[in-house]
């Protein structure tokens, strides 16, 4: 029987020495995204530190979602978007890879504004990414499904109905399922685009607490419109405005002592 | 003022009530006429035997030739329509995604094709048949019926694809699927219920249509063994028997109509059942 090196990522991570831990996990250099109508992202330069929660703030339409999608190249799905520049994930420019794109994308888990489970059972949603990785061992898959559902606090709620359709869960449960599904492929980064905007306060709290735990092992990039959520979670805040990064830094500086007028106005309106 | 409004409301309610129930009434009346006339003449022999000599003058035999023939023809046409229709629907939804104008023009044209009477397809199929050097045969019939049902199938598939949310594809890609894996494991599953309904809809239209096969499929008392042979169909079998001056043969036409109606009902019920069954996982 063949065994698969499932923990290779973790092992590799342990091998990373301290100095490498200080280097940013993502480095964006001169990223431009434009359509025929105009520019959506203008010359973005940004370093995302490892094992931190980076919060992207900014008014609606400033390009936060587009920035997230360029990180794992979901912009490919929108042919009208022209993307240029560099997005280095652990030193590899994802905009240049072709054959390795699926593997690169597996380094990043995605949570969207509204949860979109796959049109299969709860169990298969979590197992999906593992099967893509070529893991066929049933016990291994079952173990991973259980571990990841436990991690997002969903196991007790669904353990008796693992074969029910994922769409039978509540929206809050679906969002946690999507998180479990993403975690199962062992990403290093979590891209979360307003993950709690469709959720009730309790589910929101659950997700927020999860994020706090998860940043031990993951880098989280979080888009939110809720300033209080940013205060609760952020290690680093990036404020965007019309496709530009206007200010960034520690949340205490950015949110309490904004330098630019636009950010001041945004913070006032937001509160 | 108020009384007028109340009166108006009641009138509207009355009209919609009448309209809804008259549709149901007409359907039930139709089924009653067909079944009451047809069941008398229907027997196992009708379904399981070929017409023997003099069948159309009241002799012994059945309409197995037409039942099997219709089945062959519709299955063949549906397969052909799927072969053309699936890539066409994908093309509209994937390649033309940026060209909304072109997309809508094609959709409009396909809808227009849907509305063309089937006798026109029959005439066109006949010309095409001569052009291709074929004669009235199973193959020519399949091609003509495929022409008739392909636009239906493409549009129905297209409607299903249109409703598949792009976020679902994003979810699949972000988990590391390739395009093929996304298509097979996500889009196909999400659309399956709709695809099945579309398929059965097209199949049902194919099996019930008489005019398109009138010139192209021919007619025979046997079951064709090759694509080159003529083929009998249920609608034409009904047509020929109904044109007979002999009362008994006309009654048999109703028996054939019962068989055809039964198939159509069976198709629509299974479409319902299957789409329900495969719809349970759909993400809305
Ligand atoms: N596929 C696209 N085609 C054309 N324009 C687009 C496309 N995607 C995004 N845009 C435009 O790019 C700009 C930024 O959009 P984006 O969704 O990134 O904003 P956002 O910051 O996430 O806003 P919100 O807070 O409302 O989610 C918007 O003006 C939007 O209209
Ligand atoms: Mg957004």
Provide structural commentary:
The complex is a heterodimer of chains A (271) and B (284). With 271 residues, chain A is α/β, with parallel strands linked by helices. Chain A folds into 2 domains: 24-107 and 189-271, 3-Layer(aba) Sandwich (Rossmann fold), CATH 3.40.50; 119-186, no CATH class. Chain A is built from 12 helices and 10 strands. Chain A is globular. The termini of chain A are far apart. The model of chain A has no long low-confidence stretch (mean pLDDT 88). Chain B has 284 residues and is mainly alpha-helical. Chain B folds into 2 domains: 2-41; 55-281, MetI-like fold (Orthogonal Bundle). Chain B is built from 10 helices and no strands. Chain B has helices at residues 2-41, 44-48, 64-95, 100-115, 118-131, 138-162, 166-174, 179-208, 234-242, 247-279. In chain B, α7 runs antiparallel to α8 and α9 packs antiparallel against α10. Chain B starts with a helix and ends in a 5-residue tail after the last helix. The structure holds adenosine-5'-triphosphate and magnesium ion. Chain A: Residues 26-267 form the ABC transporter domain. Chain A: Pfam families: ABC_tran (PF00005). Chain A: GO terms for molecular function: ATP binding; ATP hydrolysis activity; phosphate transmembrane transporter activity. Chain A: One of its GO terms (cellular component) is membrane.
């Amino acid at each position: 029987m063949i065994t698969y090196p499932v923990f290779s990522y973790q092992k590799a991570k342990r091998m990373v020495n301290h100095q490498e831990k200080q280097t940013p996990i993502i480095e964006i250099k001169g990223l431009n995204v434009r359509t025929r109508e105009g520019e959506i992202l203008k010359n973005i330069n940004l370093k995302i530190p490892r094992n931190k929660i980076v919060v992207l703030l900014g008014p609606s339409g400033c390009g936060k979602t587009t920035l997230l999608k360029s990180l794992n190249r979901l912009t490919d799905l929108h042919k009208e978007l022209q993307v240029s520049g560099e997005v280095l994930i652990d030193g590899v420019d994802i905009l240049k890879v072709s054959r390795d794109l699926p593997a690169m994308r597996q380094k990043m888990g995605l949570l969207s504004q509204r949860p979109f489970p796959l049109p299969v059972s709860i169990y298969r949603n979590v197992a999906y990414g593992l099967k893509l990785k070529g893991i066929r061992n049933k016990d291994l898959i079952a173990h991973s499904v259980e571990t990841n559902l436990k991690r997002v606090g969903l196991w007790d709620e669904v353990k008796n109905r693992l074969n029910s359709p994922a769409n039978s869960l509540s929206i809050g449960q679906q969002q946690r399922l999507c998180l479990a599904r993403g975690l199962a492929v062992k990403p290093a980064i979590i891209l979360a685009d307003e993950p709690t905007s469709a959720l009730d306060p309790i589910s929101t709290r659950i997700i927020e607490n999860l994020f706090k735990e998860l940043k031990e092992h993951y880098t989280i990039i979080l888009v939110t419109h809720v300033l209080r959520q940013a205060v609760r979670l952020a290690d680093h805040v990036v404020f965007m405005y019309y496709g530009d990064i206007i200010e960034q830094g520690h949340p205490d500086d950015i949110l309490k002592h904004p330098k630019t007028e636009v950010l001041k106005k945004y913070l006032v309106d937001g509160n | 003022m108020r009384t007028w409004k109340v009166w108006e409301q009641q009138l509207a309610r009355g009209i919609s009530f009448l309209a809804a129930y008259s549709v149901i009434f007409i359907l039930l009346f139709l089924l009653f006429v067909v079944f009451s006339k047809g069941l008398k003449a229907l027997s196992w022999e009708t379904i399981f035997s070929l017409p023997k000599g003099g069948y159309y003058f009241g002799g012994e035999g059945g309409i197995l030739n037409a039942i099997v023939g219709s089945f062959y023809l519709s299955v063949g046409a549906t397969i052909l329509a799927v072969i053309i229709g699936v890539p066409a629907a994908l093309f509209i939804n994937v390649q033309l995604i940026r060209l909304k104008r072109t997309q809508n023009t094609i959709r409009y044209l396909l809808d227009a094709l849907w509305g063309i009477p089937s006798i026109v397809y029959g005439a066109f199929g006949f010309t095409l048949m001569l052009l291709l050097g074929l004669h009235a045969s199973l193959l020519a019939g399949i091609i003509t019926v495929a022409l008739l049902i392909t636009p239906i199938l493409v549009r129905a598939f297209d409607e299903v694809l249109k409703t598949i949310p792009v976020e679902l594809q994003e979810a699949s890609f972000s988990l590391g699927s390739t395009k093929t894996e996304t298509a097979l494991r996500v889009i196909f599953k999400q659309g399956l219920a709709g695809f099945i309904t579309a398929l059965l809809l097209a199949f049902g239209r194919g099996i019930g249509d008489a005019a398109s096969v009138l010139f192209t499929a021919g007619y025979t008392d046997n079951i064709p063994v090759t694509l080159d042979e003529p083929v009998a169909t249920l609608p034409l079998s009904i047509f020929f028997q109904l044109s007979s001056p002999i009362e008994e043969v006309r009654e048999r036409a109703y028996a054939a109509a019962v068989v055809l109606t039964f198939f159509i009902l069976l198709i629509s019920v299974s479409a319902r059942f299957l789409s329900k069954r495969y719809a349970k996982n759909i993400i809305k």
